[in-house]
Structures are given as structure tokens and as C-alpha cells.
Specification:
mainly alpha; single chain; 82% helix; 140 residues
Amino acid sequence: MTINLLLVLIIGLAGGLAVGAGFVAFLVVLGVIPRLTQLTKTLHLIHFYEWAVILGAVSGTIGSLQSPVLSFSTFITIPIGLAGGIFVGMLAAGLTEVLNVFPILAKRVRIDDKIAILIMAIVIGKIAGSLFHWIYFVDH
């Protein structure tokens, strides 16, 4: 029993270190956070972005290990969900900006002059998908 527990602890620690190292490498190599601060013109707040990512990763890890049940009112969960969605959306926008996804996609499908329409189609699709998920799949 003790050897099994020790083996599980070692495998869990190794997996966590591998995922954490990959996450940090992803953020550092691509420069997602600095680019995000440039896009939002909040370069002076870069330390807050970094700490938000660190605290989010740590609290997400703790939450996934303990499966907490939080009972908040609707008036509290709406702003929390909105803030989380904005953060994930901005992080994704920073990533696509770093990787030049939209110009490459527009060039491939030969719509270089209609890149604004491409971006709005992606945004509207993301909103529609999120609404569909929340309306039909989230239990109330």
C-alpha cells in the first residue's frame, strides 16, 4: 500500500512538473503576456497579469484536486464568469496576434481585404457557441 501511494505521488508530481513546464514555456517562448499588455496598452500592469496567471493556475490546480462546491448568488457569478471569459478571450487574442493567425488564414482562403469580416465571424461564432452551451448543457 505504501509503495503504491509513493508511486502515485511520484507520477503525479512528475506529470504536474511536465505540464507546468510546458505551460510556462508556452507563455514565455511566445511572449503572450507581454503582447497582451501591448494590445491593451496596459504595459505598466504586466506584473498583475503575471500574478493573475500564477494565482489562476495554482487555484485551478487546488480546485481540481479538491472539487469544491461554491454556492454564490447569480449577482456574484455573472461578474466572475464575465471576468473569466474576458481574460480567456484576451489571452486567446494575444496568442493569435503573436502567431499571426488571422493574416495567414485570410491569405490562405484569399480574403485579404475582408479580415474584419473574418474576425467578426469568429467572434459571433464564439458567442453563439457559448450561449448554446450555457442554454442547453448547463444544469440549473
